Amino acid sequence: MRLIVISAGVALLVSLFGTPFLMRLLNKHGYSQAIRESGDLLFPDHGSKKGTPSMGGVAIIAAVVLGYAIAHLYTQTSPTASGMLLMFLVVGLGAVGFADDYIKIFKRRSLGLRAGTKFGGQILVGLVFGILALNFRDDEGLTPASQAISFVRDTPWVLPAAAFVAWALLLVVATSNAVNLTDGLDGLATGAAMMSFAAYTLIGVWQFGQSCLISQGPRCYEVRDPLDLAVIAAAFMGACFGFLWWNAPKAQIFMGDTGSLAIGGAIAGLAIMSRTELLLLVLGGLFVIITLSVIVQVGSFKLTGKRVFRMAPLQHHFEMLGWAEVTIVIRFWIIAGLSVGVGLAIFYYEWVRG
Prior knowledge:
Layout: H1 2-28, H2 57-75, H3 81-106, H4 115-132, E1 148-150, E2 154-158, H5 161-182, H6 188-209, H7 226-247, H8 256-273, H9 280-283, H10 285-304, H11 314-320, H12 325-353
């Protein structure tokens, strides 16, 4: 368990004390987020956020990479195939988000990359991840991902390899965009993601302790590298903790798409490789709700010409109703915490019942 403590601790310290250096660098060069103007439509007043530096996701990714690397160096253990694949997914999606933030900051275009270009980058990274995840068998014949659709463990529904890659791609793109949609208020996505990573840390530790290599039995877990997945989840948890100090309302820095896409990809990768794909819908309940609000809003407007919410994503609907930003953030954190609690209860109940 030293791996987890060191990884989380290093990531926390790097994020907590490294973010101010990034803030100073960004402020020095005037690299701040372009704020969307209202134009002819009514948007929440975010004028006070103008000038706040973005690209804070760089600090989160750096903290995770250093936390993971130092933990393995200190304990003299080797990274696993699952761990390296997850890091590839994180850095790859972070690079796509970085390109988006770069355009927002340097081109002063609040919408960033064109939708097709951004989506194409996510697809490329997700496809490579999905294909590689079916390789790298260990001595027990386990690959980082399984072709079976999973809930709290693999189900009997086994997909052909091509269908699995498409399924993994869907999870990666959907989750990364869900976190991106949630990242609309100070600290909202950071705090919610931190809870999800805490859950996956516990799940990884439990799966390691009940692994079929350690604890033989009908309810043991066939997951290739559960402990290393927990190490990365713990690093993200620590990094989000540290970053939240500076990102909590009123935020002194935004994570930008660099952070939101990387965080969403990490959550999806953890779900795929820990065999908890469908459980992600519960563990990431807040992300699901916010994404559904956008789908409902767009669908309703296209079909009926009417909007269900005053504005989507959902957090902005409550802004338009006059709720204070900090009130929305804290109440949405409560929803995220309840979702994580229910998800962990389902995970544990399945094992106890067995």
